[in-house]
Structures are given as C-alpha cells and as structure tokens.
Amino acid sequence: MRKSLVIAMAVLLLASCEQPDFFDTKGRGYHYSDLKGKWLILNYWATWCGPCIKEIPELNKIAEEHQDKVSVFGVNFDQPDAEEMHAQVEKMRIAFPVFAIDPSHELGFTRPEVLPTTFIFSADGALQATLIGPQTETSLLKALQTGP
Fold first, then answer.
1. Quick check: helix, strand or coil at residue 99?
2. Number of domains in the chain
3. What is the pLDDT averaged over residues 72-94?
4. Strands 98-99, 127-132: parallel, antiparallel or unpaired by DSSP?
5. 116: domain range?
6. 42 within some domain
7. pLDDT: which is higher, 18 or 22
8. Is the distance from CB of 94 to CB of 85 less than 8 angstroms?
9. What is the pTM assigned to this prediction?
C-alpha cells in the first residue's frame, strides 16, 4: 500500500512538470509565459556581422543593469549545429541567453533579412518595435518608450 502511494505521488509530480517552450544554447528551458510582465528585447546577430559585434556589449549592459524589467535574448541568424552555436556565443562574448532554435515562427513574426535586427516586445507580449541596425543602450531604452 505504501509503495503504491509513493508511485502514485511520483506519477502525479512527473505529470505536473510542464515541458519548457524553448531552450537556450546552454540547455536551460524557458516558458514564454515566464517572460510576460517584462519587456523583451530579441536580437538577431551573426559572427560575420560587424555591427552585431559592436552592439553586443550594449545588449549585455541592458541585460545586466535592467534585468528586473527587461529580458534580453539573442538569436544566431545562421543557426549552426549546437557545438558551433556554443562556440559562436562564446566568441561574441554574449552574456544573455541565446535561443537554441529560431523562435520567429512561434512568436509570429517574419525572420529578419538584415542584421542586426532587434525586436522589442512589451510587457504584455505585443511586438512594439523592430529596430534595424546596431543599437546602443540609449536607443534600446528609448525603444522601450520611457525605459524600464
């Protein structure tokens, strides 16, 4: 009887564990619902893109200094295999999470054709702005309307 109860409890616990909606390049899982309530900056970059290289430190700064109100995520435009993706994230010195798989289809927007491109989503999940070209901390905070 006791063994059956333990098994039943284990099954219930496992059944209630919800699978993540997406993973970053480090294997951490996320739920889109957890991103609600904060602004989301979603940046497309590539290692061969000079302006991308220039703006990564600005995005790192936003991610670190405004994490209470803003989530910053990256997307590697080239979508290499997992090992190369990890190497490229390290090479670019990206300190914020990078999607393992391009989320454009799931989030309902067209994949950009120009790099860098940054999408700004409001705290309620609505696409607020599409910024093309390298951004600075100032331009990103301005795009968040009054800033976080």
1. strand
2. 1
3. 97
4. unpaired
5. 21-143
6. yes
7. 22
8. no
9. 0.86
